[in-house]
């Protein structure tokens, strides 16, 4: 079959481009590495599994001690045996030097959406105009196109409704657990500060069935794997695509280079046996993930002696203690993702964003390792309060990132991580505002728990080849086409004009949908 379009990557970006292309009748070839899970996810609640599953070490630690071997990883996700397949092979494939910048990615079917926090948000119309100019209406249309596919929940007439800007496509939220319910009630009764606003989290988790996916039943296994498929993953979109006769996916392929002329685009790379592969089509849509896409483009454009800015969000984590629940027993049913979110004012124009998560689905060691005391003492201390705590995170805008992808005279890539000098002051001010608001709600941030991570640890990477009007090498046009590579379009985070503090996956998907639909419209003229 001669293909009209090649889509590289099966994550949220790749599938969001492939779906409208396939529905328009285009013959689409998707190239992907396609790792699949080797482990079954827990079938009963996290509480019951920990109490009675005599094989729980297989998914808690791993048959090959996977969790212990990855003890130094900054994110708990990289220590979860059932998520091993998500990150497998990426470091070997990407393989660059890094200085103070944490990087990871996925070569699994569905990409990083197999291991995400499921947070969703849309940019405001004002921000869309600023970032996309005359194309902002197209983004609004594409948000409406992609949002129903995810199965969003959390719709609520609260003070964050306008900030998230997704309630028109969202169902009611999953039932609140005791701690987040108490936090919201206390906030509603004592919300004196306009600098800190709390509300329901908006997440891509089903509160009612959708197609083959079942609604969430709060088993607490969100981090380990959802047997109900309640949490959105792009791999579920592959079911629909695979039913189309004009769509084909080839797994076990990694693309390394792209060449284009007026009529065809040629991609080359290697397969799982190390053999060379080549494919061609009229156009190529790059959705391999920001880091992989950037590496492909650096080689394809023969970029040398250059620095590409890479945005990531300065990110902090903390532990929130709720005294009213001190001494409570472990709940037999608890939701494992964010249920309460907040916005904190940083400056007149900048906000920070965060969410609260339950602690039951995480091993105690994930908290002990961050305390400034010994492991034994820390374990005793935390075991006494952990059931009355929630984990919080804080994301600052990616525009505060000054990290770089450095390309030397040979075209070799290295990563250097840094933030603008203002981020520490902004983070400290945000912490002060949060502590004051929490105190009004009779909640307290555990001392020494508020810590920023190294650049890149948020695993939000964006804007290496941003959409711009500059028409310069290292950017994309508003159409998504790469300057210097005709008929090659970037549909993942690499082409975002900037990285918001908000959850960015929905915006990536909307931009991908927009780029694909514009391509279809031009082709039909």
TrEMBL record:
Gene3D superfamilies: FAD/NAD(P)-binding domain. Pfam families: FAD_binding_2 (PF00890), GMC_oxred_C (PF05199). The keyword Flavoprotein applies. Residues 4-43 form the FAD-dependent oxidoreductase 2 FAD-binding domain. Keywords: FAD, Flavoprotein, Oxidoreductase. Belongs to the GMC oxidoreductase family. This is 4Fe-4S ferredoxin. It comes from Enterovibrio coralii.
């Amino acid at each position: 079959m001669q293909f009209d379009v090649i889509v590289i990557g099966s994550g949220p970006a790749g599938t969001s481009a492939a779906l409208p292309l396939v529905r328009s009748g285009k013959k689409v070839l998707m190239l992907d590495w396609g790792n699949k899970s080797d482990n079954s996810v827990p079938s009963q609640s996290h509480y019951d599994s920990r109490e009675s599953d005599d094989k729980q070490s297989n998914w808690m630690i791993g048959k090959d001690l996977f969790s212990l071997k990855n003890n130094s990883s900054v994110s708990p996700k990289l220590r979860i045996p059932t998520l091993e397949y998500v990150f497998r092979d990426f470091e070997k494939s990407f393989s660059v030097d890094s200085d103070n910048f944490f990087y990871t990615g996925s070569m699994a079917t569905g990409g990083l959406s197999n291991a995400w926090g499921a947070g969703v948000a849309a940019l405001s119309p004002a921000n869309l105009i600023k970032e996309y100019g005359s194309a902002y209406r197209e983004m609004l249309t594409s948000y409406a196109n992609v949002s129903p596919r995810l199965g969003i929940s959390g719709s609520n007439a609260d003070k964050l409704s306008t900030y998230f800007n997704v309630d028109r496509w969202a169902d009611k939220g999953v039932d609140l657990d005791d701690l987040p319910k108490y936090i919201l009630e206390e906030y509603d009764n004592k919300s004196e500060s306009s600098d800190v606003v709390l509300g329901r989290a908006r997440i891509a988790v089903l509160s009612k069935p959708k197609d083959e996916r079942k609604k969430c039943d709060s088993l607490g296994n969100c981090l380990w794997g959802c047997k109900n498929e309640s949490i959105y993953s792009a791999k579920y979109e592959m079911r629909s695509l695979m039913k189309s006769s004009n769509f084909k996916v080839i797994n076990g392929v990694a693309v390394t280079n792209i060449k284009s002329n007026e009529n065809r685009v040629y991609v080359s790379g290697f397969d799982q046996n190390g053999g060379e592969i080549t494919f061609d089509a009229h156009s190529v849509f790059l959705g391999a993930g920001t880091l992989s896409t950037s590496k492909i483009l650096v080689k394809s454009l023969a970029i040398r002696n250059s620095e590409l800015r890479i945005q990531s969000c300065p990110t902090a984590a903390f532990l929130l203690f709720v005294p009213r629940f001190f001494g409570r027993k472990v709940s037999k049913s608890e939701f494992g993702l964010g249920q309460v979110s907040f916005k904190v004012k940083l400056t007149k124009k900048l906000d920070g964003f965060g969410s609260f998560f339950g602690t039951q689905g995480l091993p105690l060691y994930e908290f002990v390792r961050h305390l400034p005391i010994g492991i034994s003492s820390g374990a005793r201390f935390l075991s006494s309060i952990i059931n009355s705590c929630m984990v919080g995170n804080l994301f600052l805008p990616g525009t505060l990132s000054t990290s770089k992808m450095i390309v030397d005279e040979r075209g070799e890539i290295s990563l250097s991580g840094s933030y603008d000098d203002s981020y520490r002051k902004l983070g400290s001010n945000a912490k002060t505002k949060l502590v004051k608001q929490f105190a009004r709600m009779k909640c307290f941030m555990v001392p020494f728990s508020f810590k920023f991570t190294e650049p890149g640890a948020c695993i939000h990477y964006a804007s290496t080849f941003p959409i711009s009007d500059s028409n310069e090498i290292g950017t994309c046009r508003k159409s998504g086409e790469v300057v210097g590579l005709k008929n090659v379009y970037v549909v993942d985070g690499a082409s975002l004009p900037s990285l918001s503090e908000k959850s960015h996956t929905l915006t990536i998907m909307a931009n991908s949908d927009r780029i694909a639909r514009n391509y279809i419209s031009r082709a039909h003229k």
